[in-house]
Amino acid sequence: MSLRDRFTAELKTAMLAKDAARVSTLRMITAKLKDTDIAARPGPPVDEAAIIAMLRGMSKSRAESVAMYRQGAREELAAKEETEIAVIESFLPQQMDDAAMAAAVDAAVAESGATSVKEMGKVMAVLKGKHAAVLDMAKAGPMVKARLGG
Fold it and tell me: Which of 11, 14, 81, 94 is the most exposed place for a label (fewest CB within 10 A)?
């Protein structure tokens, strides 16, 4: 089932269950998806990889909001954002653990033939091409740098 279909099915289920927080978050996701599709015009609607990137961005911005709300002692708003993060992340693929990430980094270094930090871009390109959906590139960067002796 595509992510678009999952959004619709989950929205219907949440509406029937009268889960207001989930309904609100799913409507927000579908609105953001429509905006993303409109921005991609005149081409076709965005693909699954772009939808996953959109969801990751939404999750990241909410995590930043949680930190700011906690700084401002606004726990109720932080809790609302965390609920939204949980719904958004339920649609994201499971992220690699550290051991799998280290193995992927080693394989990418071997495949790219990189030997120094100057060639880090080659390794990152290989990682992004093969593992973009399940690999947190922000965590992979420092691992690649350490592996290349940086």
Answer: 94
C-beta separation of 104 from 96 below 8 A: yes
Backbone angles phi, psi at 132, to 5 degrees: -55, -40
Q: List the domain boundaries for the chain.
A: 3-89, 98-147
Third-level CATH fold of 98-147: Arc Repressor Mutant, subunit A (1.10.10)
Residue-by-residue pLDDT tens, the chain, 150 positions: 888 999 999 999 999 999 999 999 999 999 999 999 999 888 888 888 889 889 989 999 999 999 999 999 999 999 999 999 999 999 988 877 888 888 888 888 888 887 778 888 888 888 888 877 777 777 888 888 888 876
